[in-house]
Amino acid sequence: MNERAHEPGELPDRSVIAEAVRGTRWHAVSVVPTTGSTNADLADGVRAGDEAGRVLIADVQTAGRGRHQRLWSAPSGTQLSISVTVAVPAAAAPRAGWLSLVTGVAAVRAVREVTGLTAGLKWPNDVLLEAEEGKRGGKTAGILSELATAPDGRLVAVIGTGLNTELAAADVPVPTATSLRLAGAEDPDRTALAVAYLRHLDAGLAAWADDPAAARAAYLDACVTVGQRVRVELPADEVLLGTAVDVDPEGRIVVADDAGARHVLSAGDVTHLRPA
Length: 276
Fold this sequence. Notes:
There is one protein chain. By secondary structure, the chain is of the alpha+beta class. It has two domains: 14-222, 2-Layer Sandwich (BirA Bifunctional Protein, domain 2); 228-275, SH3 type barrels (Roll), CATH 2.30.30.100. It is 24% helix and 30% strand. It contains five helices and twelve strands. A seven-stranded mixed β-sheet has the order 1-2-3-7-6-5-4, sandwiched between helices. It has a five-stranded antiparallel β-sheet with strand order 11-10-9-8-12, with no helix packed on it. The longest helix has 21 residues, at 190-210. It is globular and about 55 Å long. The model is unreliable at 1-6 (pLDDT under 50). This is biotin--[biotin carboxyl-carrier protein] ligase. One of its GO terms (cellular component) is cytoplasm.
């Protein structure tokens, strides 16, 4: 990628990103000032017949969503909001639940590469930054993966990532959230982050399709939840306390309770998971 100065808040550079990811699966890159939801826009495109491999970046989303339909928004210039479309081969369809986990690994690697910050994944796919002296750690990115069907029946995943870059303390939506700047990155460059993220995601998706064991090993290497004592909030106000001991080959968290019983939970089973 060409080195260049950038002003805080300016739009990611579409031409630089497109050139840097040439030769990967990402064949069409678009950058827009604002939209309702980058995921919704790309899903509409899939249903209209667009080929997979598209990238859409927006400065502002007015109707961005996270898991469980939680709203996800940020002021202009403070977040990298990026969605992609990924073809899901029939043979890999049973492993589609892994897509958001693979994406989380790509986001962690991009943050580490571009900023040097210590980043990890809270299961299933929240990107966490380590708190350092005088800096604010916490969640800096969330990921939402959805499936759309093309007119010819092809299954396509639409994966959206919202990464807080320049978000100020006054704009952080919850006490457990942060941004790259609040965590100590002096000048987080959204163009560089987009390039690193797309390159790592392309490689991670190749492993997901061809070598699931390698994709799982990469996830476990980035995951900070395994080994932690956790509090898992389940539907109907149930609470499970125990230790996260593994993420199984289907991407489910395995929690051993205090009696030694092992509970295997998918992301859809869990309302919240936090350190106990």
